[in-house]
Amino acid sequence: MAFTLPPLPYDHAALEPTIDAETMKLHHGKHHQAYVDKLNEAVAEEGLEGKSLEEILGAISSLSKKARNNGGGHWNHSFFWETMKPGGGAPSGALAEAIDAAFGSLDGLKTKFGEAGVGQFGSGWVWLLAGGTVGLRIVSSPNQDNPLMDDAADKGVPILGNDVWEHAYYLKYNNRRPDYLKAWWDVVDWDKVAERFAAAG
Ligand code: MN
Q: pLDDT tens for residues 88-114?
């Protein structure tokens, strides 16, 4: 079974004005599709048929750059679309308590997350990780790397992630990555984040 592009769970324009429809069209239909297509090439070239994406990422240190960049690209973007919804919301319950414990407040989390996003030189991702014994923490990764990769420094469970590649924000925010990072909170699906947090244990 070849990997396929998952449909967006909302319309291209649903995250306006935070993320414009044109950016969503290109990001999902062109960028994500390209990761899927090249991942399928890597699967054929490297004999990875039948492996799940998680299995591929868990053995990425022994695979090609093509498998890494496009396997990561497919996982990261699939996760990203599901992390957002029109209207956003706010964390509550056990998740809100864990955020307060780790960062002092939701604003504390947003500040730290924004700093990590601005501090990621070039293209990459910022993640909020759960799991393990150290509580919630923020990590960034270059290119399409992610915490599921076997050579990741912190293999915690991602419960939230933002794409800081220029293709994610340049049409609307130009070079103003800090503005994009700040505005993005308006479309975070906290119910989804809470669901992932509960599953992370
Ligand atoms: Mn992207």
A: 889 999 999 999 999 999 999 999 999
Pick one of 3.40.50.2300, 2.30.30.240, 3.55.40.20, 4.10.320.10 as the CATH number of 93-200. Answer: 3.55.40.20
Whole-number Å distance, alpha carbon 97 to ligand 1 midpoint, is 30
For residue 162, the CA-to-ligand 1 centroid distance in Å is 9
Say which residue, 31 or 153, is predicted with more confidence.
31
Statement: residue 57 has pLDDT above 90: yes
Q: Tell me, in angstroms, the distance from the centre of ligand 1 to residue 194's CA.
A: 23
Buried (b) or exposed (e) across 48-81, using 16+ Cβ within 10 A? beeeebeebbeebeebeeebbbbbbbbbbbbbbb
Instruction: Show the beta-strand stretches assigned E in the chain.
Output: 124-130, 137-142, 157-163
Q: Which homologous superfamily does the CATH classification assign to the domain defined by 21-82?
A: Fe,Mn superoxide dismutase (SOD) domain (1.10.287.990)
**Per-residue pLDDT reduced to its tens digit, 16-32:** 999 999 999 999 999 99
- For residue 41, how far is its CA from the centre of ligand 1 (angstroms)? 19
